[in-house]
Amino acid sequence: MKDLIRKGADGLETEISEEQISDFITFYDEINKWGKKINLTALLNNKEKLVEELFLDSMAPLKIMEGTGNEDITLLDIGSGGGFPGIPIKIINRSIIVTLSDSIEKKVFFMRNVIRALSLDKTVAANVKYGEAGAPGLNKLFFDFAVSKAVATADKLGIWAAPHLKKNGRLICMKSEGEALIRLNGYREPESFPYTLPLSGIKRKLIVYVKE
């Protein structure tokens, strides 16, 4: 497990410490334990795919976020499920203020358990449902970034994220290589940032929208 995580992080040009690797192993153990009771991921029995597609892939938005030079970055993870990509992002950069969110209460309980197990400060998990006006109970015009991993189409994510993003805040959609770029109302022309998963060579991309 350690070698997989270290090799994968190197492939993504992401620095990772022994302490961070230990956090990922604890996270993996919690997924295995809770995954026997609730549906967190279909990759439960495939360690390498789980590490790559959940842990490593979740690190990709960090390049966009850290590239802005902002301090005290606020991040909204829409439809986090088992905590992806928000928890891996927080493990790598603990200065980021993270709000995880999901509509399924059991998954929110799981994420709160991981937050405690890893002592992740400035991190919360909210049980919310998104609609045309965003998600009731979440801060409006507060977040520098919103991110989502394979939860919904870009146009739907744009609607959900807009009430919560600051002006010039960025929506990062994690998509497959072939995903088309579409214009979203209230956002500037999107930019695409391709990357390659380091263990399998699968091509992915981040589609980034800046709120007007």
State the end-to-end distance. Answer: 42 Å
Helical run tally = 7
Briefly note the structural class of the backbone: alpha/beta
Q: List the secondary-structure elements in sequence, H or E.
A: HHHHEHEHEEHEEE
**Beta-strand percentage range:** 15-25%
The whole-number mean of residue pLDDT values reads 95
Radius of gyration using CA atoms only: 16 Å
Overview of this structure, please?
It is a single chain. This protein is α/β, with parallel strands linked by helices and 212 residues long. The protein has helices at 2-11, 18-34, 47-59, 62-66, 86-92, 105-117, 154-161, and strands spanning 74-78, 97-102, 123-127, 143-149, 165-176, 191-196, 203-210. The protein has a 7-stranded mixed beta sheet with strand order 3-2-1-4-5-7-6, with helices on both faces. Helix 1 (2-11) runs parallel beside helix 3. It starts with a helix and ends with a strand. The model has no long low-confidence stretch (mean pLDDT 95).
Features:
212 residues; alpha/beta; 7 helices; seven-stranded mixed sheet
Strand and helix layout:
Elements (H helix, E strand, L loop, with lengths): L1 H10 L6 H17 L12 H13 L2 H5 L7 E5 L7 H7 L4 E6 L2 H13 L5 E5 L15 E7 L4 H8 L3 E12 L14 E6 L6 E8 L2
Parallel strand pairs: 1-2, 1-4, 2-3, 4-5
Antiparallel strand pairs: 5-7, 6-7
Helix pairs in contact: 1-3, 3-5
